[in-house]
Amino acid sequence: MRTATLIPDAFDRHLVSRFSFGWSADLAERIPSGGARAWFESQLVAEGVADDYAASMIQWFPSQTTAPRELWRQFQADQVNVQSVADDLGRWTILRQIHSARQVKEVMSDFWSNLLYVPSPNDKSWPVRANYDRTIRRNALGSFDTLLAEAVLHPALLCYLDNWDSTALRPNENLGRELLELFTVGRSAAYSEQDVWNSAMILTGWTVSMRDTWLRKYLSSTHYVGQVQVMGFSSANRLADGRPIVDGYLRYLAHHPTTARRIARRLAVRFVDDNPTAALVDSVAAAYLASGTDIKATLRALVDHPDFAQPSSIGAKVRTPIEDYAATTRALGVRALAPTGSREDMSDLCIWQALSLGQRPFGWPRPDGFPDNAQVWSSATRLLGSWQLHQTLASGTHPSSAVRYEDHATYMPGLPLPFPEFVDEVSRRLLHRPADPVLVRAAADATGSSTTDVVTSRHTVVRYSFVLLLTALLDSTHHMTR
Questions:
Q1: Which of 78, 86, 97, 443 can bridge 120 by disulfide, Cβ–Cβ 3.0-4.6 Å?
Q2: What would the pLDDT profile of 301-312 be if each residue is shown by its tens digit?
């Protein structure tokens, strides 16, 4: 009598799928007796989750911890180039998403990075881009008002959106505009062009020692002095030191009800549905405001809402190419090892394999970040690329160095078994979910088998086409959605 591998129930599977970069054997073992909700709560206090291996990977990419001034010196001496530093950031990001035990923190770091977006590479911000990434990650589960202030006044954003060169006499509106349009209230707030101008004036004074130390500094001599008003925020702005006004302005925007709704909707789109209900958005926005922009409280309200666990929500989000890459390596137990310098290293190939599916880390060219809806990521080209990648990783052939693959025996159940039960058991071990009749039929077609077969050690699916079975499971909507 077969004893099937235990798997999480539908809600637990759904919660973990939405707030991780994919199920893995290690993650399944971390789910406590209290279920996925207890795991989720422990993840919200990320510092309590040991993460030594993922943390150690920063040593593989020295450019990510090199001081900006030294990076600039190396660049001038032709010892480093902008693209290589950006590639290291992309590799470090993907490998953390795969290997970090702090999955909720990684997911939220990705979410906020896409909201407070700075592309990489970027000619004006590249030496400080890795530090910006760490700033986002440090605040990913804190409060949005603190995150907003640290991000907007970080050298990376000050450079990217030209505030470093904005003065009272020669204002640049880029950061002031995007602060309203993209980072907080959004276009629906119906702010005016005069509001944009005042937003830019408030931010004058904050600059960066570009092409030198790359440190942020405040120059009172360049700050605009005079009355400013943006929507409901106003100040006489009489002092040359405008830093207190900037702090008040950013806090005002972070706590604005329209910002609350915009953040709530983006969270609902990311974690619930491409078209969230008004009731869900209102509930999450209310929790955001009542908690003083606390991110943990806001996420709890989202998970507690009835819409989160609606059957129509489960499996409704299409994984982006990077999410697909991370989820596939996690499901297959592929482990990156310290780089050897080979072009076949996993640490090198991960960024190119993700790019082959149509997405490069931080590669969106505009400041609005990557789109988050199924239509964008469901083209025929992307699907074909994903299916090819699934087979490549399942076969354990590419990458071929600085990587460890899980033995296929890990997924092989005891034999003999009827073909449907065989596929179900492999699905439970690989995807942590049962195989429905449609998936069994697809697996039979992919492996040249019949659903009426009895699988023994000499069956073709065991001897010759087990990789094709793994690929068929990974190609299914059970894996390509979350």
A1: 86
A2: 999 999 999 988
